[in-house]
Each structure stands twice: as C-alpha cells, then as structure tokens.
Amino acid sequence: MSGYISVSEIQSRQETDREGFLEWNINLPSHVDQERLQIHEGRVKLIGRFAGFGGVTVSEYQGNVTTYDAPAIGGIFNDGTAAAAGTAAATEAKRERSMLQYDGPVLAQNYLWPQATVSINRAEVGSRVATHVRNGHDDQKAWAYELNASLQRGLRSAAKQNIYDKNDPTDVFGSSMTATALIVGSLPPVNTLSIFPLTIATIYWGIQYRVESLINNTSMENPPRFIDRRWSIFPSVSFNPDRYALASLVTTLPLVRHRSK
Question: Is there a contact between 144 and 256 (Cβ–Cβ < 8 Å)?
C-alpha cells in the first residue's frame, strides 16, 4: 500500500493520468507549501475499496462561514461594564459536503463503483485556519489539520450514502435472515433452528444473483466479471454494514498531514 504523497505530485500526475483514483482540485493560498502538504493515498484507496468507490475527488466550494450572534445587553454594572442578557448563539457552517457520481452503463447496483467527491468549504476552513493562527498555531499545520478532518468526515459520509443509508426493505430482510442463520447456527449445540433463515437467505441470494446477471448481460456486450461485484457478508444490494464499518474505521486514521522539513 502506498503511503503519503504530496498534493503537488497528485496535481502533476493528474495532467498526464486522467484515470487516476485520487484527484485533488483545491486551490490553496500561495503561501501553503504543497510539497509538504501530503495525503495518504493508500488509506484513501483502502477506504474507497471498502466503501465501493471507483475513485475519489477532493474539490472546493465557497460556502457560508460560521457566524456568532452577540448577546443582548441586560444592564450596566456600577463600574460601567455591560451585563449580558443571554449567551452568544453560533450558526455553524458546514465544512464539507459529499456526493456520488455514477458514470458508464446501467448495471446491477452491486457492480456500480461511483466516483465519490468530497467538496471542502474553502471559506469556512480558511476561517478556522485563521482562528488557529490567532491562537498561536502554525499556519501550514492548521491547513493540514482542517483538511484532514474534512476529508475524514466527507469520505465517511460518502460511504454511508453508498452502502449503508439506502436501506431497501428487501435488502434488510435478506441480510437479517443471513445474520440470523449465522448467529443461531454457530451457537452450541448445533441445532436446526438456523435451517429456516438459512433457507430463506439462500433463496434470496440465488434470486438476487440471477437478476444481477440478467441486468448486466442486457446492459453490456461484455458484462462485468463476477469478481467485479461489491462483495459483502450480507447478500443485500445496497445495505453493506460490514463494508461501511471497515471504511469508517480507516477514516479514523490520519489522511492529510504537514511534513516537517
């Protein structure tokens, strides 16, 4: 698995390799050293593999910034200072947003590997970096810290959209039958209680794979291989909690860092 790679190297590679897994499309301030700002490419790819992404794009947008409403003055003390009538309220802006893009032919859903895009709110992240700097932190490290947090959250959100949030009732039912069969069947002593859910799960699997084959063969002259399927312990099409758990686990690891000289 590859390790950290500089942002400048990723951008340079994009000019010649349009099919790369990771794209970086953020215009950072000129004083940010993009040779020392690095992304752990191997971890991003691993998250993508678990989450069912065909690629990851990191981009930017100009959104709102967090605003603070000053408390009203409730009175004046004898020394002339004001007494607040309440606490200051903050309207916190989003730091990132995630989206999925499907390209190519219509395939069975478990064969779709969408492009995941994490868009960073450039205005809000820049405002937070400025706050870090005012508090005495290094500007370069502050950018790395905020970008890392946004990328972690953004990829976790995209993974949830792709393989966890859809919750088709049929998928949940099939997964529940499989999980029940595995749990009950593993309890000592081995008994016949798992036969019913296991039978239902097997029928579900068989029907699902047959439908997938029909869809893929109709859509393409050269349909995808069986190995190209987004495999999961659960037989469902859109509900893969095992893959989501693994992807979420990797997002807790550092993804962006500032390399010291």
Answer: yes
- φ, ψ of residue 223 to 5 degrees: the values are -65, 160
0.90 surpassed by pTM: no
Averaged pLDDT for residues 119-131 = 94
Burial status of residue 222 (CB atoms within 10 A of its CB: 0-12, 13-18, 19 or more): exposed
Q: Report d(CA 209, CA 224) in Å as an integer.
A: 13
Tally Cβ neighbours within 10 Å of residue 14: 14
Amino acid making up residue 210:
R
Structure confidence at residue 165 (pLDDT): 77
Can you say whether the dihedral through the CA atoms of 245, 165, 2, 253 is positive or negative?
A: negative
d(CA 18, CA 170): 38
86: left (phi over 0), alpha (psi -120 to 50) or beta: beta
The continuous run of DSSP H or E covering 148 comes out as helix 139-163
Structural contact between residues 70 and 93, judged by C-beta atoms closer than 8 angstroms: no
Lowest-pLDDT choice from 112-116, 177-181, 240-244: 177-181
With tokens 């002259």, the residue in question is 221
User: Tokens for 38?
Assistant: 């690095």
